[in-house]
Amino acid sequence: MRIQSNGSNGNPRGIGRRRGTPPRGGKTFPDQKMILVLAAVAATIFASGLMLGTHIYGSPQISDTSAASSVSQPSLNNEHSSPLVAATSRIAASDVQRLIMESAAAEAFEEEERRQEEEALKHGDKTLALHLRGALVPGDPNYNPHHHIDDTLDVDDPLNSNQEIVGGEEKQENMIENMHHQFAQALDHEKHVIDSAVKKGVTKLKETAAGVAKKAALRGAITKDETAENLPNYPYMRTLVPKDHDFTKYKPLGGNRFIEYLEGESPYAMTDSLREQSDNLARSRRVHVVNAMKHVWKNYKEYAFGMDELHPISKKGTANWGGMGTTLVDALDTLWLMGMKDEFWEARDWVRDHLSHDKVGDVSGFETTIRSLGGLLSAYDLSGDKVFLEKADDLGAKLFKAYDTPSGLPKGSVNLKTGRAHNMNWNGNAYIVAEAATQQIEYRYLAKATGKEDYKKSEKVFDILDKITPEDGLLFEKLKEGGENGASFITASKSSFGAMGDSAYEYMIKIWVQGGRKEEMYRKMWDKAMNGVHEQLLQKSTPNGLTYIADRLNGGRLDHKMDHLACFMGGSLALGAYTDPSGIDSSRAKRDLKTAKALTYTCYQMYARTQTGISPEFVKFSGGNDFIVPSSAPFYILRPEVVEAFYYLSVLTGDPIYREWGWEVFQSIEKYCKTKYGYGSLHDVNAPSMKPEDRMESFFLAETLKYLYLLFDPDSEIDILNKHVFNTEAHPFKIFNN
């Protein structure tokens, strides 16, 4: 049987020849039998490998402008394929195996013919020799229909003559019978050789595929039920983004897409090859996030350097945080991580020469701790420059006066100049649980870096919370002094993972990570709270079943709303799952990871379903379309929590979908929030024709742009599983066992 492929002129041509003659009779060189067999075996391995490799490594890229739901199908690049590859790529695996057997049989038959032909010539039996050559025609008693006629005979061929053919009929029959016997033996042997070769090839392919899945699982990219053997290929890979990409032409793509992620499943195979494609695409997007930071920093330096905020429309600088250079300090580690080292060191010089806290009046202890103290400590952690540690110690000592209370809970506001502290009148002078329980990562680090143990007194907050937290693990948002434990909850207040409650839960899991996963109290508090979430607060919307976390009001009633702030839980749940002491494959870790994914899908829909592709401050889950944007909260103040969740899930699961969603968010920010001098808040996310407002929070540089950059930065020095922990303002610190 001949194997054919298309030549350069498009005409079929055989690859086999016999003794130098043109490939017209379909016969081949006897010494090429093994070449044909090996080629056929290679064809089987190639075809099987093509199918398995396509399943493992994913499909080719599709254009960034194509429909998000379109699925790419694998194809071969025939321009660079060999003739054998081009031919066998169109043959099913079963057909290729049949091809092997038939080729082997034909080759064995012809090899035996050649040998018998030579024997016949030695004995002078040219009739038999011609029969074996296949030179007889239909009608001749010795004609064999399984043979072909050579159109051209060699000049020196001993059979190419007009000599008389002589020979005995009995001798010819004996020769044929002997030939058939030897042919059967040769065919059995050939079949055994081919079967062994194919079996070894298939075994090798299976071992390679298993090795790929095992390697990915060890890297933390996939869990056991996400291996390439069980799941289809990821279909949303895009083309690289050019450096001159025009964001003004972007149009939000709308919601209700990527529905396969609704329930928190992992619908596609995560492989090393897919990760590599995603990383290359991310690098082409990373450039544009750096450009956004450069745009802001250029104008901040020119119009507001050293001021607390730059106003992105009026280009004014203001000292609305006490004149501590809040935007500059908050952005230090973002500059470092983005490789903007010249700008970083220039900012360091300002910190060294101009930053002073001596004349600053009342500030929020919580906000100043997470932004300014956290920014200085992170800059020190990354650069090692002691200027930052000295300034952090000075600020920390002043802020820590807020802890001088009977209970040890910190007051909400502190005067850095006088040291006097107080709670807010608007809150009935109560302590806010999120503020009191979201300073410990910073003070623990400061205590370790300076050797000043007094800073560790901040941990007393969690000692109190551990004693007074209800059995369901859910915290009330307000606290008051007094009681046998030094403080107690105001139970008339609500429980929320949004404003006033959110980061207290975040710090449970992150303090545990910061301490090298050794301080069990924090982990137990976290796991207890997550049980409470799943049992009491986790809800599904109507009609599509979006997952969300409701607020619990006084008396146990649920308020079916979810803040943008609550979307941090997608990242924290994922971090908790991947650091679970029982392992990522434990039932608790699987539950929490699934919830993290489902919740983050909802948070993505909060962006995708608006006319600008940007989320409002919160949504209400009511009506017939899952949620609505309430008239009281249609605004966006450049918040980071959703892209924070994208970052954690992207790093921990390896799923490129979170980069895809993050890219949509970034494009909408570029389209609707960018101004001549920076980026502004939006008054109404469903009013795309409205201009941005003249306000840019420091956390846009510290958190939103940083998390977007890290989302698209596969080469980052940050390692959230083994080396670093972020405070709630996205400032990274090394964990204590590093």
Please, could you describe this protein's structure?
There is one protein chain. This protein is mainly α. The chain contains 21 helices and 18 strands. The protein has helices at 33-57, 83-88, 93-122, 126-133, 169-218, 272-304, 326-330, 332-337, 341-354, 365-383, 386-399, 433-436, 440-450, 460-468, 502-514, 520-537, 568-578, 587-608, 641-653, 657-672, 699-711, and strands at 4-6, 12-14, 309-310, 317-318, 362-364, 413-415, 421-422, 431-432, 478-481, 487-489, 538-540, 547-549, 551-552, 558-559, 561-563, 618-620, 724-726, 732-734. The chain has a 3-stranded antiparallel β-sheet with strand order 5-6-7. The chain has a 3-stranded antiparallel β-sheet with strand order 8-9-10. The chain has a two-stranded antiparallel ribbon with strand order 1-2. A hairpin with a 5-residue loop joins strand 13 and strand 14. Helix 3 runs antiparallel to helix 5 (169-218) and helix 19 (641-653) runs antiparallel to helix 20 (657-672). The chain is globular. The model is unreliable at 1-103, 135-157, 159-167 and 208-227 (pLDDT under 50).
Q: Could you provide a short overview of the structure?
A:
By secondary structure, the chain is mainly α.
Oligomeric nature of the chains: single chain
Number of strands: 18
Q: Could you give a short account of the major beta sheet?
A: 3 strands, antiparallel
Strand content: 5-15%
Distance between the termini: 67 Å
Alpha carbon gyration radius: 37 Å
Low-confidence blocks of residues: 1-103, 135-157, 159-167, 208-227
The helix fraction, in percent, is 40-55%
Coarse structural class? mainly alpha
| Number of DSSP helical runs | 21
The order of strands across the largest sheet is: 5-6-7
Shape: globular
Mean pLDDT: 81
